[in-house]
Amino acid sequence: MVRRILFAVGMPMAGGVGLLYVMSVLKENGVWDVPTWLPFASTLLSFGTSALGIAFGTLSTSWDPDREGSFFGWAEVTKNWPKLWEEEGEERR
């Protein structure tokens, strides 16, 4: 589970930081006058995707300790999502 979360959070975050660096270098060297809204939008998108990666990493992991999950985890997501809401409904009763 930790590997999936680290991957699902780390990749978008690293991409966002890398993109900010590239835009900074382009602007400092006068290659492209980056609009001020573009770093804001790319940061919002990349860090927002990282936040969703926490939920995806948790839901895409097999919750059965004896069973290894699939590579992308889609089968686990379709199984764990309803299970998560069943427990939520039971807590409200």
Automatic annotation (TrEMBL):
Lineage top rank: taxon: Eukaryota
Organism: Spirodela intermedia
Record InterPro entries: PAM68-like
PANTHER family: EXPRESSED PROTEIN, PROTEIN PAM68, CHLOROPLASTIC
Descriptive protein name: Uncharacterized protein
Lineage, uppermost ranks: Eukaryota, Viridiplantae, Streptophyta, Embryophyta, Tracheophyta
Pfam families: DUF3464
Keywords, ordered alphabetically: Membrane, Transmembrane, Transmembrane helix
TM helices/strands, residue ranges: 5-26, 38-59
